[in-house]
Design brief:
Keywords: ATP-binding, Coenzyme A biosynthesis, Cytoplasm, Kinase, Nucleotide-binding, Potassium, Transferase. Belongs to the type III pantothenate kinase family. Homodimer. One of its GO terms (molecular function) is pantothenate kinase activity. It contains seven helices and ten strands. With 253 residues, the protein is an alpha/beta fold. The chain has two domains: 83 residues, Nucleotidyltransferase, domain 5 (2-Layer Sandwich); 129 residues, Nucleotidyltransferase, domain 5 (2-Layer Sandwich), CATH 3.30.420.40. The strands form two sheets. A five-stranded mixed sheet has the order 3-2-1-4-5, with helices on both faces. It has a five-stranded mixed sheet with strand order 8-7-6-9-10. It is globular and about 60 Å long.
Length: 253
Amino acid sequence: MLLAIDVGNTNTVLGLFDGESLHQSWRIKTDARDTADELHVMYRGLLAQSPDFSGIALCSTVPSTLREMRSMLNRYYSDIETVIVEPGTRTGVPVLTDNPKEVGADRIVNTLATHHLFGGPAIVVDFGTSTNLDVVSDKGEFLGGALAPGIEISIDALAARAAQLRKVELVRPRSVIGKNTVEALQSGALYGFAGQVDGLVDRIEEELGHVQAVVATGGLAPLVVEESRTITHHEPDLTLIGLRLVFERNTAS
């Protein structure tokens, strides 16, 4: 069994793999203030009823949490083979950007998983704290992409800066033309972000040529997938699958 851990800015996703099959997964909030001991207590509770695992694959976009995760792994899981995705880790993904070291580990892992599952050229649309569009070449290279503010932080910022607006549940409104403030906000968020993704995908395709797949992932992807005309696949476990592939590339077993 392999434990894959994807630490994002807002949420952390854990997945337990039995071979290529995802046996179980969990989604918890990321708190950059958590210490190694607090992380261990939380993970031990989540995994208490799960089978034992013999490997760990980790990627993190939060430096402070990555530091504490290293400490936790060294202290409590030192006997378990561990692969952390960082510069120097064998991923099989050439990063064709101006500064490859600044590209988030999750974007590299998503590139690997997308090319493995769908081939290329492809676009990954990761709906998280930010909305990331990552471009994968037909050879599985990371070509770059586009970053935009995420859905939740955009709604939070609007509610904080506009006196008569507030946070709303992100669900489909009755119509695009909202008849009240809540529906108007829901329309702007849902259809606005779907349109943003479609517009960026169109421009990327104009520049790149034919794209074989547009793959949505991330916690907020289900909100937008059905409203987008360009997204062709939804793979909620894309990053976990990529972590499994990286682990396999870096271990003898």
